[in-house]
Amino acid sequence: MEVTTRTSPADGAHGSADRPRALHTRLEFEIAGGEQAPRIARQVVHSLRTELDGQRLNEVRLLVTELVTNCVQHAHIGRTETVTVSVELDKSTLHVAVSNPGAGFEPPGPAADDSEGGRGLVIVDQLAERWGVDDVHEARVWFEISRSANGNGGPP
Predict the structure, then answer these.
(1) pLDDT of residue 76
(2) What's the rounded Cα separation, in Å, for the pair 109 and 114?
(3) What string of H, E and C letters represents the secondary structure of the chain?
(4) In what order do the strands lie in the sheet with 130-134?
(5) Comparing C-alpha atoms, which of 62, 95, 97, 104 is closest to residue 83?
């Protein structure tokens, strides 16, 4: 797994007692597909714990898990292919994109009430402020949410 992070320090930003909150954070990583991919993606995204409040971190971890799971289950991204997760966090907004080398798709309609799956994009739609699907060079689903669940741009 390759993980690349880059942060730019914030002037006067406040975060944890031992580390100031960054004004801009970019995190990008590739992970092998397969059944372990969602768990690994969730663990890497957890590294944002000093940049997001607890509620927002849990939502982001859930959404990334759902999107990586979609890559594995619906695009059939196995262990020989990779899923790329890109996270951009600025002063007020978190932008996340999950992509894979598979073909693009049209978002499905609502899942049947008795189905076991098919609700990942419904969850994205409910929690994200904006989201979409791009398929210019690869299948890519992205979402944006405020940095903080309480709307003030940072941890409470």
Answers:
(1) 86
(2) 14
(3) CEEEEEEEECCCCCCECCECCEEEEEEEEEEECCCCHHHHHHHHHHHHHHCCCHHHHHHHHHHHHHHHHHHHHHCCCCCCCEEEEEEEECCCEEEEEEEECCCCCCCCCCCCCCCCCCCHHHHHHHHCCEEEEECCCCEEEEEEEECCCCCCCCCC
(4) 2-9, 22-32, 82-89, 93-100, 139-146, 130-134
(5) 97
- Specify the pTM: 0.77
- Quickly name the fold that domain 2-8+21-107+116-146 has: Heat Shock Protein 90 (3.30.565)
Determine phi and psi for 127, rounding to 5 degrees: -95, -30
